[in-house]
Design brief:
single chain, Tetracycline Repressor, domain 2, Arc Repressor Mutant, subunit A
């Protein structure tokens, strides 16, 4: 029996060579190689390693994903600073409000809409004006300040009246808000200060008139002068005098009107 066992051994050794080089090689390759390919190959060979490398790669790629998602975080962090990219947010809101008033009137003013126009958050205007009334009050105060400057150093009442009309034409949005007390916070310090200053400039121009030109009551003369200038300016900016004036310059027309009313009385 032992020689019989020894005989097959060389037969296998002899046959092993042809199996590796000849036809039997594929048979053994199908057997052992498939087993190695099915189980060990994916794990131990480079193919399995690549699969493992592929799997961790998404995991590692997924790690940076939050980092990439976090990259916009600085942009979001920078967003709160966005309302101040104008350099002067208060001025930007005032400018947007004046555009709306000039085009649609004070009733169309909305803080939310102004924030959208200025490209800031809805709450941003409230930091400067608190509410709609505060915004309109700020516009009126600014307007009276501009009017006081316009009336400064007017040579006489006629010139002061011309400047009043010119102010209304150049600042129609301010003009509409300034004389609408129902829209304003009447006790606002900035508003009352600017209004008082503009009134004083107008009264000074009236007081400069000779007594025979203004009558005995300076107060009534001031009311008359203001009514004339304000009424004429309102008619001009509302385009109600476009037809009557034609091509005549409104400033020149008003100058002529004041000459008719405020002149020395005949003895």
């Amino acid at each position: 029996m032992q020689p019989a066992k020894a005989d097959p051994a060389p037969a296998k050794a002899d046959g092993a060579a042809p199996e590796k080089t000849g036809d039997p090689a594929p048979a053994r390759t199908d057997g052992p190689v498939s087993e190695k390919a099915d189980s060990p190959a994916p794990v131990r060979t480079g193919k399995g390693a690549s699969e493992k490398a592929d799997r961790p790669a998404p995991a590692e790629t997924g790690g940076p994903a939050p980092a990439k998602a976090g990259a916009p975080a600085p942009e979001k962090t920078g967003t709160p600073a966005r309302p101040y990219h104008h350099g002067d947010l208060r001025r930007a809101i005032l400018g947007a409000a004046l555009d709306v008033i000039a085009a649609e009137g004070p009733a169309a003013v909305s803080l939310r809409d102004l924030a959208r126009r200025a490209g800031v958050s809805h709450a941003a205007p409230a930091h400067h004006f608190k509410d709609r009334v505060g915004l309109l009050t700020a516009i009126a105060a600014e307007g009276f300040g501009l009017l006081a400057t316009a009336l400064d150093d007017a040579g006489d009442l006629r010139e002061a009246g011309v400047r009043y009309v010119r102010f209304a034409r150049e600042h129609p949005a301010h003009f509409q808000v300034m004389f609408a007390p129902e829209l304003l916070r009447s006790d606002d310090l900035e508003l009352t200060t600017a209004r008082t200053l503009a009134g004083a400039r107008l009264r000074a121009a009236v007081s400069a008139l000779p007594a025979e030109g203004r009558g005995a009551d300076t107060r009534l003369a001031g009311i008359a002068a203001w009514s004339l200038a304000h009424g004429f300016a309102t008619l001009v900016i509302s385009h109600n005098l476009d037809g009557p004036l034609g091509d005549q310059d409104p400033d020149e027309a008003f100058h002529a009107l004041t000459g008719m009313l405020f002149r020395p009385q005949e003895p």
